# Entry
Amino acid sequence: MKQRIGVYICHCGGNISDYVDVEELGKMFHQEENVVVSKDVMFACADSNQKDMVSDIQANNLDAIVVCSCSPKLHLHTFKNVAIRAGLNPSNYVQVNIREQCSWPHSDRPREATVKAAGLIRAGINRVSYSESLENIELSVKKSALVIGAGVSGMKAAIDLARSGNEVFLIEKDYFVGGRVAQKEILFPTNQNGKEVVAALYNEMKKFPNITIFTGATVEKVSGSLGNFNVDIKVKPRYINPNADKKAVKRAMDECPVNVHDDFNLGLIERKAIYKNYPEALPDVPVVVAEALKDATDFTGKFASTLNLNEEAQTLSLIAGSVLVTTGYDHYQPKEGEFGYKTISNVVTLPELNRLMEMNSGKLVYNGKKINSVAFIYCVGSRQTKGDNKYCSRQCCTSTIHTSLQLKEKYKDIQTYHLYRDIRTYGKQELIYAESSKQGDLYFKYEEKEMPVVASPSLSKGKGKDKVLIKVKDYLTAKKEMEIEADLVVLVTGMVAREDATHISELFKIPIGRDKFFNEIHPKLKPVETVIKGVYIGGTCQGPKNVSESVQSSLAGASKITALLKSGTVSVDPIIARVNADACTWCGKCSDVCDYTAIKEVLFGNKHVAGVNKAVCTGCGICAPVCPENAIEIAQYTDNEIESMIDGFMMDFDIKEKGAGETEDVLTPPSGGGGQAMKEYPQVWREILAGMTDEKNTIPEIAANSRLASELVTFHLMTMNKYGVVVPAGMDEKETYYYYKQPPKSPKGGF
Amino acid sequence: MSTSPKILVFSTDKISDPGIDQAGLRKIHYAPSVYVISLPCSSGIKPRWILHALENGFDGVFIAADGHECSYSARCADHTNTIVETTQELMKEKNINPRRVRMAALCSVCAEPFMNHMENYGKILAGLEEAP
# Structure
């Protein structure tokens, strides 16, 4: 039990002390048996206070500290570092949130806010009393990274990781790199060719000898953990003799008599059974669909020295310190009959249209007919209130409108119709929406409850009997039922999680969200980290993104990995599960609920007990409630700590009401209502007042005179105004800034 | 002073706690008799902690669960639900009304929903009699 505790209660300017009697609480806790220092401070996070805290800890030999201020999300690390600077173990520090969870939500009831704050602080003191000095877990890490998925995101990340000196293994399931970007002829907003972008990145990668690329490769088995992931990969054969002459390989491709389904072109055409995705596809080695050639014995006999149909898959073992998953996405595949897909011949998806456009240079032809009009139906498979995909796929509005512009540019006289629910061309992408409208594209707004109906060409009433008829209730024209005839209907399909995401999730234990994409820890605070230490996610495997956003996230992941692997060792948070071996009877329940296989049966003397893999445990605590012997717990969340907090909340406090005479000689905000008295101005107020050199001054003038940041001046002027230290004095001539001045008679407590 | 029922909230560091913080940030008022303990995951709440709170003066325990947003486990909602059911069985044995523990999913921006939950649960607790 800690016996020499320091308690710091923050005014936060007036954010806390306007409603909570911080001074009274400071005095009250000073009388507690195990509290050696108890102070109310104007800004706990201020450098000057941090220095005072370090001095207090050292001078009073404090064994624990409690800081009662804002949310731990803001300053947990600030005060942990104070503890470290003072020579105190940072685990012996507890932050109590008396701002976001006390003074602000209870600003309407200041007296009760003070009572609650007392309970919160008491709970914090109780908790820190039971705190233990925990040491971070040091793990050695191999300076190598495994990147899974060689799309643009994965390739950019691989280059970044290699440039930072890491050994990089880049594995790609397909036989060629580039992913979805290679399927896009022209990319928004740079109008670069997708294949050229892929080639540029591949050639850049080849400059780094520390990048090893495996194509046609899949992850088969994973063991180990942060610092040393042991990964088995399976590399599928290409069935091409590696020593074969390039001209012979080209001849074999040209003369191949068997055609197969062309996945790259989404099945719109067939390709030879010896193929490359496209002529410039990289690596520059074709692939043989050996199964398709089993009956073409004459052909295989002729090219026996070129083909190697007996080649077998290889399994390789890699060791990686960290893993970045950039496996990308799948296109949403409409169900048969959904808006006429697969049941009406003139209905395709947006990715299919993009492939058609690349294959049709002079005029756009589909099913042997020239296309003069195209109707896009947006949000197909996205934003489904009743379906699985409730999310917006983000990039499809822009992609569609960009495609519409390309249609006009490439084929001149095509008319496009856009049947949308909402247009979400966010940011700069909005410009192409305006451009599309200007060029004459027609927009119709529909609602999910009244979906457009696509009818077969035979029902079309217009002159073109082979046109598709689309009926839509247009919300832009008072829900008028419109009928549109188009040569081609394009279903704007969004992104969905890859089918094999579950396989990767099971191998690496990466949590999957309700949308089936990989889950980061927190979308804002830890956007590329997963709860699995050392495993990061980037690109569209974590949710819909455009190319630019995908690359940003994968580079963020690469930076995280570089920082992680830099020193050769990594320090891991000690807040993990631990087992009381004396109490444990090994029933296996804790192991059953652990999604990370962090708990295994181990021998403790002659006894079988649960053992925790420190490198793997995430500290989630799911194992603790299921233990029938109460033999497993999470550090910093022990029974003593939690139950003593509950006891602290329930304690009675005799909070002294502030008497009228007590504030006579101090500075108090005129509005009252729980405002905190001050005996003198804080230093920063003095500097601001010194910066008010004229009769009245604007914030930029004060900031310039006092050499303080204008944001800081603005922040403090608000509180100073409450205390009557300054008052507004009109606006400047341009009505840009308010003037502030000191009132004729300044309140007490000043200089 | 308020006579609102005392509610102990178990929140989670990454999901529901930021939502509760946001209620404060936006000065959305709820009863000062609401106290929060933040944990890594709602599936890590021990039934004995809930009982300890109820046996020592709290009128109700509210679990602000991660639900499907949990970054630790896709089975989080099921695990937390099991904890609630186990606790309710123990509560019945001690003649504590099982409605004194409640669970709802709360996200990182659920400021108003948190306030509504506290208000509604406060009303339910105020009307409870000890009949299991």
Notes: Strands of chain B lie at 7-12, 34-39, 60-65, 101-105.
